[in-house]
Amino acid sequence: MNIEKILNNNVVTTIGEDGIEKVVMGRGIAFKKKIGEEIEEDKIEKVFIIHNPHTSMRLQSLLNEIPIEYAEVSEEIIKHASEVIDKKLHEQIYLSLTDHIAFALRRAAEGLIMKNEMLWEIKRIYKKEFSIGMWAIRLIEEKLGVTLDENEAGFIALHIVNASLGQEMPDTMSITKLINDILNIVKYYFKIELDGESLSYFRFVTHLKFFAQRMFNRKQEINNDNSLYDVIRDKYQEPYLCVRKIKDYIQKNYDYELTEEEMVYLMLHIQRLISRKSE
């Protein structure tokens, strides 16, 4: 690999055989080097392959501005998150999370604490991602000597959710609000406390994540076979009435009409929730 651009002593770019620009990071990788010279393989610590040219340019700009340690910590968090949730994260997270960490550290140095208004919802809905966020702030303290609080763990969790769903952050916030509102409709309709540790709760929240993603992308799965809907509606009358409330809420607030198939899945999940609760 030959150097295409030198961003600083620790970051260069190169062009692969496929014509895609790659960002190469390593301590002293560009020290006393010139454009066109070969990159020393033993100094390469990370290669970022960002297919979106706009994102790649922004990442290059960011890596040119921040200490290499910030990018290393971000990379370690992303790797850990991918292993924990067992899913490849969208490449945008290399930019968004690294940028957020740099901003959080700058705020911490100035003594500024940003309150995460959705922290309670994040803890409730994204338990696994929040645990990764807590792991991340411990790593930041260990590697960089800066103590961040659980507000930042919540923000990191949202970046992970965002990358796992392939959504932009504002959409992720909208998805989180929608899920929380649906959970509250179920909670108050049945007058129960939902067990956030139960498998049925986890399955329901997982279903709601992908339902919300489809809803905001206006991608409905339409099945013209109504036989299952009729059976489930008649068998689980209380879950049906609860889903009617959810349907009315979504129609009023998001101008989105639930299909009968979507209602069936919601009824089944809610029935499982309340049956586990009664047991």
TrEMBL record:
Residues 65-169, 170-279 form the PRD domain. GO terms for biological process: regulation of DNA-templated transcription. PROSITE patterns: PRD_2. Coiled coil: none annotated. The keyword Repeat applies. Keywords: Repeat. One of its GO terms (molecular function) is RNA binding. InterPro entries: BglG_antiterminators (IPR050661), CAT_RNA-bd_dom (IPR004341), CAT_RNA-bd_dom_sf (IPR036650), PRD (IPR011608), PRD_sf (IPR036634). It comes from the Bacteria. It holds the Pfam family CAT_RBD. PANTHER family: CRYPTIC BETA-GLUCOSIDE BGL OPERON ANTITERMINATOR. This is Transcriptional regulator. It comes from Clostridium polyendosporum. The lineage of its organism: Bacteria, Bacillati, Bacillota, Clostridia, Eubacteriales. The gene is licT.
